Structures are given as C-alpha cells and as structure tokens.
Amino acid sequence: MVKICCIGAGYVGGPTMAVIAVKCPAIEVVVVDISKPRIDAWNSDTLPIYEPGLDEVVKACRGKNLFFSTDVEKHVAEADIIFVSVNTPTKTRGLGAGKAADLTYWESAARMIADVSKSDKIVVEKSTVPVKTAEAIEKILTHNSKGINYQILSNPEFLAEGTAIDDLFKPDRVLIGGRETPEGRKAVQALKEVYANWVPEENIITTNLWSAELSKLAANAFLAQRISSVNAMSALCEATGANVSEVSYAIGKDSRIGPKFLNASVGFGGSCFQKDILNLVYICECNGLPEVANYWKQVIKINDYQKSRFVNRVVSSMFNTVSGKKVAVLGFAFKKDTGDTRETPAIDVCKGLLGDKAQVSIYDPQVTEDQIQRDLAMNKFDWDHPMHLQPTSPSSVKQELDYQKIFNNMQKPAFVFDGRNVVNADKLREIGFIVYSIGKPLDAWLKDMPAIA
Ligand SMILES: NC(=O)c1ccc[n+]([C@@H]2O[C@H](COP(=O)([O-])OP(=O)(O)OC[C@H]3O[C@@H](n4cnc5c(N)ncnc54)[C@H](O)[C@@H]3O)[C@@H](O)[C@H]2O)c1
Ligand SMILES: O=c1ccn([C@@H]2O[C@H](COP(=O)(O)OP(=O)(O)O[C@H]3O[C@H](CO)[C@@H](O)[C@H](O)[C@H]3O)[C@@H](O)[C@H]2O)c(=O)[nH]1
C-alpha cells in the first residue's frame, strides 16, 4: 500500500488529502500538523474549516484510509510520498520584509524530513513557494542524506476556498513539475498515477520544476489582475454613467477574454493573491527586473485604491463624517462560503470606518466574534495569523433580511453600500434607501457628494 503523509492540516492540506483518500481507497493518507487543536478538530465533528461538501468527504474515509495526527515524525518516516502544505506567509521582518515569502515553516519541515527519514522519499511542494525553492529544499535534504534518495516535485494547488471540494474533484488541471532525469521522471509518474485515479490524463500537465513553481504565482497574478482591471473600470463607470456589470458582460462575451472573474468588488481578499503577487514582485526585483516588478505592483495598488474608494464613498455620502453613526457590516470573510478572514477587504473597510469614529456592528455567519476582534486589533503587518483555523460552527440557515423593517428602524436618510453588487438596488430604492453599488450609475444623492478617492 502506497503511504502518503501531508505536513500541514490547513485549508489546502486538509481538503486536498481528504479528496485523495476518498478517490484512492488503496492509498493510506495521513495528515500531520504541529497544532494539536487543529488535529483534534479534524478528528471531531466540527472540522476546523468550513468548506461546502468537506464534511461528507472526511466522514466517508476518516479512520479507514484517512488519518489526522500530531505524530509528525512517525508518519513522515513511514511515508513514500510526503506533501508539504505548510503556510508560506509574507515575511514581516528582515530581508524582503513586506514582500518575500517566509519559508521558515517550509525549512523546518524539510529539516525534519531529513532527520527522520530512513527510506527513499518523494517530497512534493504543495505550498505556494518562490520559483527555485525546490533547489533550496534539495540542498537541505541531500546535505545529510545518509544514502537516502529524495526526489522533489512541485505540485502547486489551484483550489479556491468556498469551492475547494468541487475544484479538487474536477480540477481544470493538475500540474506536476520535476527534475528532467530518469529518477525525476519516475517520481513525476508516481504522483501522476495518484491523480490519475480521478483526473483525466489530458488534464495532468508535467513540466520542469521551475515552470511549475512559477506557474502558480503567474496564475494568481493573472487572476488578481483581472479583478483589479475590472475594479479600475468600476471607478470610471461611476464617473461616466456606464454600468460595470454591463461592461463586464460585454467584454466577457469575447471568447479571448471570457466571462469569469470579472465581478467588480470592494477589492480582492484572501490569503493568496496579495501574498503571491508581493512574492512575485520581490522575485522580479531580485532578478533585476524593476519594470516587471512595478507592473505587478499596480495590481495591489488598485486593490488598495478600491478599498479606500469604498470607505470614502460611505463617509462622504453621510456629510463627510460617520462619527457616532451606526453602520452594520454584513459579511466579514473574504468571500462567501468560507469563514476565512485572512486579508479580507472587510478589515480595511471596518478600520476605515472606525478611524472616522463610526459605531460598527459586524455579522458573518461563519466568523466568530473573537476572530473579528482579533482581525481588527491586528496591525496591517501581521499578515499571517495562525488563530484563523479555530473550529467554527457552520450555520447553514439562510436568513432573508426584511429591508422594509430595517428601513423603518433606521435614521433617515438611510443608506446601503453594496461592496459586492449582490443586493437588489431597485427594490431597496423603492423602499426609500439611498443605494451605492460599485461601478453602477450613481444615485443623485451620491453624485452631489463626490468621494475623493
Ligand atoms: N488557502 C488556499 O486557498 C490556498 C490555495 C492554494 C495554495 N495555497 C498555499 O498552500 C499553502 C498552505 O496554505 P493554507 O491556507 O493551507 O495554510 P494554513 O495556514 O491554513 O495551514 C498550514 C498548516 O501548516 C501547519 N504547519 C506549519 N509548519 C509546520 C510544520 N513544521 N510541521 C507540521 N505542520 C506545520 C500549520 O500549523 C497550519 O495548520 C500556502 O503556501 C498557500 O499559499 C493556499
Ligand atoms: O470576479 C471576481 C472574483 C473574485 N473576487 C474576489 O477575489 C478574492 C479571491 O477569490 P477566489 O480567487 O475565488 O478565492 P481564493 O480562495 O483566494 O482562490 C485564489 O487563490 C488560491 C490560492 O493560491 C488559488 O489556488 C485559486 O486558484 C485562486 O482563485 C475574493 O475576495 C473574491 O471576492 C472578485 O472581487 N471578483
């Protein structure tokens, strides 16, 4: 029986390994982590992350061929294939602080693998890492190899939170990079055979190591760039009377552009886009490519601009101050169907409003009050915050808001600011609300109170 061990039981390690286990009954999969509360939660009825469909997959194979354990060394020693799926946050100190990826967790995992291994291993980079990381890992592993043969593969993960299980069941592609040597090709083949249990062969791409590592950063940069592009357009739409949804639809009909990922928003969030673009920017700078670095930096600058623009709209609409005014914030996670608050634009929006002394009440069915308090207490540089994986109790009860009742109880004029273009603005206007929708023609009220973006 092939044995897989995954180091890191987070948003990637947990769901990815659960899907491998459910699709490959002949493989034993053990997910290990240094965090006991996290492992305990994976072994309980309340999983540490909320992801539609995850409970069912875990329940189907946990205790059969899927295990969660804190006994990291034992399971690493026994494994044939080791996935490393630890966090790789942005460095907050020292060389490259604010941009470069912090590989502390990766390095300690690699050193531990070198220490405890007694048989040949395939070590798979699942975490998103800077291009050329495999070379550094190879050095750590082979430095003290005791005759053990290590093959390093890059197998970046492309799942998006909120749709992780669907994405893993039907990936657009699986990417495997390896050394172009006979041993390297053999290792690539071994990993390919795992995925071939459910992924069609034509969707499994094999490349060299550096292409695989860089493709992950490139994919996230391209995706985030689309959002910044449409968000930049949303500002111009508001200034001209164009409607960003109509513009997105019209351009998305061009098959070269395509319709996906063109929704204007208050800005992208999540643990990946900003971190990975900053990392890309740093790599470009280190390779003497400042023009390329500046090009990608703009994607983040527009994202920051979009968040400030939203806050400015709120404040300027209410006579340039929200001091003492009660603002309800509906939704705090970085997107729907997740409880993850890493880099959520809601943090910046709430901080902007609190900075203007608003009274802010926040609600998100997937996020605990403690988590929100921690997020708002953190200063901007604490990019990775390990507390985010506390068990949550997913509530699937959908509650419809009674906007008429809400309106009746609010001070007038009453406002709704929609950072995701999800409310029915016409209906709300009929009730009497002044509504701001990103990138849509402005209400007369808002036109008279131009925001300084
Ligand atoms: N979150 C996503 O949607 C997503 C998608 C694709 C790729 N990625 C990438 O995957 C990687 C992991 O992301 P994540 O969101 O799962 O992170 P996470 O913080 O949710 O999980 C990482 C886990 O690794 C554990 N860990 C750290 N060092 C360890 C060690 N030495 N030994 C054992 N366990 C250790 C931590 O305790 C934590 O539970 C990152 O590089 C990220 O960029 C994330
Ligand atoms: O048209 C869109 C699409 C997304 N978003 C926002 O963009 C952010 C990121 O969304 P999404 O990409 O769906 O979620 P992530 O879980 O961050 O997934 C991204 O980051 C992962 C980590 O690297 C990759 O694996 C995925 O392929 C990549 O989509 C969220 O705040 C969304 O609300 C928009 O504003 N407009």
From TrEMBL:
Q: Which SMART domains match?
A: UDPG_MGDP_dh_C
Q: Which GO terms describe its biological process?
A: UDP-glucuronate biosynthetic process
Quote the record's binding site residues for NAD(+).
8-13, 33, 38, 86-90, 127-128, 161, 272-275, 342
Database matches in InterPro entries: 6-PGluconate_DH-like_C_sf (IPR008927), NAD(P)-bd_dom_sf (IPR036291), UDP-Glc/GDP-Man (IPR017476), UDP-Glc/GDP-Man_DH_C (IPR014027), UDP-Glc/GDP-Man_DH_C_sf (IPR036220), UDP-Glc/GDP-Man_DH_dimer (IPR014026), UDP-Glc/GDP-Man_DH_N (IPR001732), UDPglc_DH_euk (IPR028356)
Q: What is its EC number?
A: 1.1.1.22
**Can you tell me which residues form the catalytic site?**
C272 (nucleophile)
- Report keywords, A-Z: NAD, Oxidoreductase, Phosphoprotein
Q: Which GO terms describe its molecular function?
A: NAD binding; UDP-glucose 6-dehydrogenase activity
Entries under PANTHER family matching the protein: UDP-GLUCOSE 6-DEHYDROGENASE, UDP-GLUCOSE DEHYDROGENASE/UDP-MANNAC DEHYDROGENASE
The record's function comment reads: Involved in the biosynthesis of UDP-glucuronic acid (UDP-GlcA), providing nucleotide sugars for cell-wall polymers.
Family according to the record: Belongs to the UDP-glucose/GDP-mannose dehydrogenase family.
Full protein name? UDP-glucose 6-dehydrogenase
To which species is this protein native? Answer: Hordeum vulgare subsp. vulgare (Domesticated barley)
Q: Gene symbol?
A: LOC123447527
